[in-house]
Design goal:
single chain; alpha+beta; Alpha-Beta Plaits; Chitinase A, domain 3; Trigger factor, domain 2; four-stranded antiparallel sheet; 13 helices; 11 strands; elongated; disordered C terminus
């Protein structure tokens, strides 16, 4: 088989493919055998009827050949994609030029391909990630949590303030389902935790014991409910004094200074891990935003969104559910779900095209050796034979896609090394933190 590619306008390519007669004969034979296994012919076991009889049953040799070409052309097209190294993003329009009746076949396939975009600004990219260190506020909050274990509540005769504890009578009415109604007396609640319903914490500030607050907000399952909160009592939390004596009696440390230092180390370890974990997504998101949304091919976005929907359907099916049930449980419409998938698809496409653009700009295209190494690694992780995997990639037309993934990995590594990372306050973060095993960061 021979294939050539011609570049057209609007990111389209035309493949011209010549398939030798012997390959077509094999395809026709395979189709004849398939029909023979499906058709019962009196006097012959299934699969054993002569080809002439099968042809007569289905309408003659031309019908058999047409069926064979219809079945085989997608495979020939996939091989042509692999041979010409194009990167299709849509379904091809295939037209048989010659060979519909006999001999070899020549066909043309026109298809939209992934665009090669240019990018700017990636060399000066600054990415904001969570601060990989403990702040005084972080440490103070942890110390307060420890002190809270020995805290006392003292009733006060004043308006509610954030951090107070209030004893409430809570009534929630669901207009659509009275069985969902709520009536709880003597309910203790910490103001400022936002664990009740919409806006209640803010509205409660300043109210005193004996006063009532009413509003409409979400209830269990997200349904709108009418709420009434009557304040029986307001109490403030009295924490014990933070002293060396208290620390020694209630922690593994002997002094306040040692406690704060230990807490700082623990929080910093966790925050470094969080920064490491967020670095990849934050970097790729910032990179993708360098590409204008108008440059994204609609075909590519639609394909990506459809893939996400099919993936959801598959996962739901494994749980014995369907999309309609999922929408009902999550209180979404199909339009909202579709928009969510489309937005996610746009982000994914922007990142994909941006990584490819970085690779071209920085000369990071994967070499044959790098592709082969990654192929071996992939085969080992799958427990598959590397040559079988290589053949499957070629037959499915995914050789270019696999090479692109290796190239994008190189582009990602380049970004991690060259991007400037800052915390939310704009302070630059040392890249050495991303290379550390946090079990050893502090010599533990």
């Amino acid at each position: 088989m021979q294939a050539s590619a011609t570049t057209l306008d609007n990111n389209r390519v035309k493949l011209t493919v010549e398939v030798e007669e012997s390959a077509i004969d094999l395809a026709v034979d395979a189709t004849a055998k398939a029909f023979a296994n499906d058709i019962s012919v009196k006097g012959f076991r299934k699969g054993k009827a002569p080809r002439a009889l099968i042809e007569s049953r289905i309408g003659g040799p031309r019908v058999l050949r047409a069926e064979a070409l219809n079945a085989a052309l997608p495979d020939f097209y996939a091989r042509a994609v692999a041979d010409t190294l194009i990167d299709p993003i849509g379904q091809p329009q295939i037209h048989i030029v010659s060979g519909e009746v006999e001999g070899g076949v020549v066909f043309e396939a026109e298809v939209e391909v992934r665009p090669e975009l240019s990018i700017g600004g990636h060399r000066n990219l600054t990415v904001t990630i969570p601060a990989p260190y403990a702040t005084d506020d972080d440490i103070d909050a942890r110390v307060k949590n420890l002190l809270t274990a020995d805290a006392e509540l003292r009733t006060v005769d004043r308006g509610v303030a954030t951090g107070d504890f209030v004893r409430l009578h809570v009534i929630g009415v669901d207009p659509a389902d009275e069985e969902n109604n709520i009536d709880i007396d003597d309910y203790t609640y910490e103001v400022g935790t936002d664990r009740l319903t919409d806006g209640v914490d803010e509205l409660m500030i300043g109210l005193k014991a004996g006063e009532t607050l009413e509003n409409i907000g979400r209830g269990p399952g997200g349904v709108p409910m009418t709420w009434k909160f009557t304040i029986h009592e307001v109490s403030e939390q009295i924490l014990p004094d933070l002293t060396d004596e208290w620390v020694e009696a209630n922690s593994e440390y002997a002094t306040v200074a040692a406690l704060r230092e230990g807490i700082a180390e623990e929080i910093t370890k966790r925050k470094i891990v969080e920064a490491q974990m967020s670095r990849r997504d934050a970097t790729l998101q910032a990179l993708g935003e360098l590409l204008d949304e108008s440059l994204l091919p609609a075909t590519l976005v639609a394909t990506e969104a459809e893939y996400r929907l099919h993936d959801l359907e598959h996962r739901l099916s494994n749980q014995g559910l369907d999309v309609q049930t999922f929408l009902r449980v999550t209180n979404q419409t199909i339009e909202e779900l579709s928009k969510l998938f489309t937005d996610d698809a746009q982000r994914a496409v922007r990142i994909d095209l941006a990584l490819r653009a970085v690779a071209r700009a920085e000369g990071l295209e994967a070499t044959d050796d790098e592709v082969n190494d990654e192929l071996v690694t992939t085969a080992e992780s799958m427990g598959a034979d590397v040559e079988i995997l290589r053949e499957n990639l070629r037959d499915s037309g995914r050789v270019v896609a696999f090479r692109a993934e290796v190239t994008k990995l190189k582009a990602s590594r380049w970004l991690y090394e060259n991007v400037t990372y800052v915390d939310p306050n704009g302070a630059e973060i040392e890249k050495s933190l991303f290379e550390s095993n946090q079990s050893d960061v502090f010599g533990n």
